Model the fold of this input.
Amino acid sequence: MLRPDPFAAIAAEEEFAAAACAAVAPWVPSIEADLHALAATHLQASTRLAARPRRWLKLLTSLRASLAAVIGTELGALMWLRKQEQRLIDRYVDVEGSLSLTAEERSRLRQGMVPAAFERFQRVDQWIMLREEQGVYA
Done:
């Protein structure tokens, strides 16, 4: 019997984060290119994990992006995106704690995947801090 791929859930979350970055990008024109670049890094991570595109995920992203739009500010959109990045980190940590991982899989998570997820979260967090320091709430 084949065991389920422990990285399938992470791949789906990476795919979602890529879509979330792309959805937020038009709301923050000053860093739109940076958000698209961040989306690309999420998509690359998802592809490396062999994710399969999901239609429901696109719908969910669209709905969540609409909710972010209701907030109506750059800061609100970025804060929503930061929540999505945190969800992704939480998924990585959940998988990292799984007893079903091999030593090689656990090492792969700890040495590359988790630090990369934290770096992406910090990038979004820094964009938020810059806007708060500048008083940019629109």
